[in-house]
Flavin reductase family protein
Amino acid sequence: MKSFETKDMSTGQVHNYLQHAIAPRPIALVSTIDKAGNVNLSPFSFFNLFSANPPVCVFSPSRRVRDNTTKHTLENIQEVAECVINIVDHNIVYKVNQASAEYPKGVNEFYESGLTELASIHIKPPRVAESPVQLECIIKQVIPLGDGPGAGNLILAEVKTIHFRDDLLDDSGQPIQKNFDLVARLGGDWYTRVTPESLFALPKPINEPLTQ
Ligand SMILES: Cc1cc2nc3c(=O)[nH]c(=O)nc-3n(C[C@H](O)[C@H](O)[C@H](O)COP(=O)(O)O)c2cc1C
């Protein structure tokens, strides 16, 4: 084994090593709006589901390592505490990557990436029409993890409305996993795609005491 103390590493090296190891990570394509009505759209792979009751997702726009500035997504949420988490499938991943470019504040990445705005039902930020699952969320809390370059900001987003594309649910309302065609981020420029061939089912163990 090669072992490393994070206190002796650069932020870039810590980021790179952990991103390769803690993978694959799902991608939240987050739409937000500022108080003047400017829409923003950016992807975040520091993202997951952490509670079902209440239903809470967390994602983290970090401070830019380059100049320690904060991302527009965080700034918008501090003005209007709402967001849509749009789930990313293989069909939109190239456009999602385009939306991650560092555009000046006020630029709407829907237009830059070629994705389509769809009005939300309950909140101001629009959904991404091409996304297979769209989650309308109210922000519960923002937790800064530091004030230096690379510091994360945990955004606790409570899911209020879940929109599923029709073909993702069977007649009884059960999600059909193989139809989602999800992608996820790994280290560096690597991504992975959840194809039907890559899926396997693992039933939960039967809850019986272990025999010696
Ligand atoms: C797939 C993908 C995942 C990303 N995940 C994150 C992330 O979790 N946290 C982060 O700060 N930046 C992440 N980025 C970079 C941001 O999307 C990028 O900095 C973006 O310009 C931020 O936009 P904003 O300033 O408009 O919020 C990711 C980029 C891509 C392509």
About this structure: The two ends are 33 Å apart (CA to CA). The CA atoms of residues 29 and 43 lie 4 Å apart. Residues 27, 40, 42-46, 60-62, 71-73, 97, 100, 102, 185 surround flavin mononucleotide (CB under 6 Å).
